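Hi R.,

Here's the chain you asked about this morning:
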Amino acid sequence: MFAASIIVLVMTIGLAIDGARAYNVSTRISAALDASALAAAKLLDDESFDDAEIQDRAHRFFAAQLQTMPITGVTMDTLAVAVDRAGGHVDVSVDVAVRTTLGQLAGISEFRLPRAARVTYKQKFIELAMVLDITGSMCQPCSKIDGLKAAAREAVANLINPSVPHGYTRVALLPYSASVNAGSYAAAVSGGASTDGCVVERNGAHTVDDHEASGSHVLGASRPALNPKYSCPSATILPLTADRATLESKIDALTTGGWTAGHIGLAWGWYVLSESWKDLWPAESKPRHDDPNVIKVVLMMTDGEFNTSYLPGVGFNSSNVNQPNSSPHQAKRLCSNMKSENVIVYSVAFQAPPEAESLLRDCATSSSHYFPASSNAELFAAFRTISERLAALRLSK
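And here is the predicted structure, written out as tokens:
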């Protein structure tokens, strides 16, 4: 009886030892499969790689992972790799056999361990409209506009760099003061009425939505005779682009002056992202539509109250958010309508008074999308945080 129990004990211990070894091998093989599938799946968004090259990437990465793994007594079949571009995933699998030692006393010569992994890797598209305050107060002192330029350049660098496939992130610049300079697009959106390239809000049913600017729904033209606050900034809009150098050049060239018609800047932030306006833009700037992998974002920044508007009535040039047709009232409605269309709204209040802070807090998608900044350092940090969040959103694994 003692001899029989010794044999059973040895077999039990042997199976435990062999089982632990097999578990260790299984864990490491699974980790190698995960790593190789991820390495291969990252190539799915680059159309220059065909399926054979993606499969080769998985094989080579898996082989490299095995170099760090003890494989004595371990055999495995050839790695199987399946590429599904439509689903955005790569499947890898391998059958592993781990030879036993003491377990053979129980008639078990090996453990069979079929292992598999799937990685879904679909990069999202980012379309970001940066609505930037270039009013006169941004040069009081001028270190404020210098801080904005540094913060905006940092955001662009975080979002458009060699690690991002070209075109997956595009940024538009919408500088504003008492109006928006639409540049070469001014004639089309104003029905030819703009004489200086600048436009204001439109009157009527589509003042606070993204209806196309055509027919009776064109934007208002310059109105210096009707509004003493009117001025036309020299900085023109830049629709969506993935050209980092062009963006940085436009940012560096920003100059300040004029009052604050923030609602007009906000409207243009929506226009450059809207399907309704796609026919206005060149091919490389057309926003994507009907694509669940597109993230549309407006980043609104100001340092003061919205105090300039052009619609007739008691709201003319009012800074009261509760006054219909005032600039803050229009801005609040624009933000609400954008958010209802799944546009993410970030807002940054830079050394702004309480009334402006309250408006931007309401405009933001949530409290975590609102950033107060009392210094250039905090402004820089806000733009960096926003761009880093968007860069993280672009990757979905």
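One quick note: The chain has two domains: 2-121, 125-396.

Cheers,
M.
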